[in-house]
Amino acid sequence: MDVFFRALSSLHPECEYIFQLEKEERRCLQYIAEQSNSSAQGCLPFWDAVVCWPSAAVGETARRACPAVFSLFRNNTGSVSRNCTSGGWSRPFPPYHIACSVDDDIPENEQSYFATVKVIYTIGYSVSLVVLCVAVLILLLFRRLRCARNYFHIQLFITFILKAVAVFIKDATLFSSDDTNHCTLSTFTCKASVVFCHYCVMTNFFWLLVEALYLNSLLLSSFRHSRRCLWGFGLLGWGVPVLFIVLWIGSRVYFEDTECWDINEDSPYWWIIKGPIVVSIAVNFMLFVNIIRILIQKLNPRLIQFNNSSQYRRLTKSTLLLIPLFGTHYMFFNFLPDYFNVNLRLCIELCMGSFQGLLVAILYCFLNQEVQKEMHMQWLRWQESSYGVVSPGAKGSQMDTPF
Length: 403
Known about the structure:
By secondary structure, the protein is mainly alpha-helical.
């Protein structure tokens, strides 16, 4: 989750550059205010829009390391100096662009990389959106496909649809025009789009958790097919994220109402959203391990009856196909340092992640044997009504569902 939004903001690194400079400026101005009562002899401390220079005596040379913000563009360890003269501070030597090996603009190869990433994840979310919509329609239109398992799949598909829509809305709101200063944009529409994006991503994680809980209870034969149980899972998937989103909105409004609420660096209130998602990822991983353990036990021919082996093998196939898509990779990337291979994180989280909904729809709708059987039956019925052709396979076929 944290990787997802950091990746989106990384597509526009100039904003992070500006925000870090503003943070350093505030620190410098505070330092200058604290030094205001000291002796006025020599050169006074000042902020030159890049580095905070301390007070110095006439004839003294002050030396400052290149600001950390320049590391956003390339790794450097240079330094800049100024002489304190009777006429005040001298010009910095060597100049910042030489001492710190940075250009005024973002390197062209990085701009090209970010643009390519945006094109790939736009294509990924667009394709996923169309395929997921078709999958939801199929599961809703055919009555014989309506069961608890497909009920959970539909909810999961909808969260992927909402996540894709939220990303498009967020991009359209923040980056629709080159004239828009998206780094300082602070409007109700902008904040609403960010809130909606956070909610959609959060519900996606929680419905992945619901899928894991359902599969785990199914393998333990402890699932009770009742409306109360379905409502409980629905409340967990859709309702719990609302609670944390409302708490986060309140904290931003009263304590941190800055920019478009899309920058969460060093914000303690970000954990109101990030914390529950990290917990859901950890629980999902533990459920994954538990499901694998149960399947290994149940697939042992000495421990199961022959009649149940085909069912458990089918559950094994579906479980092993779905669990890797539960965000298992987040267990690895979520706890890595922020500076660890940003390009790799962008590729996995945005590019590959944008196709996650497509994979889930293909695996759990279009490749599902029950869906294929029902589609085939509908095709045979259409042929019968149109041409009077009756296939022997159309008679006496029944669905194979766990309920």
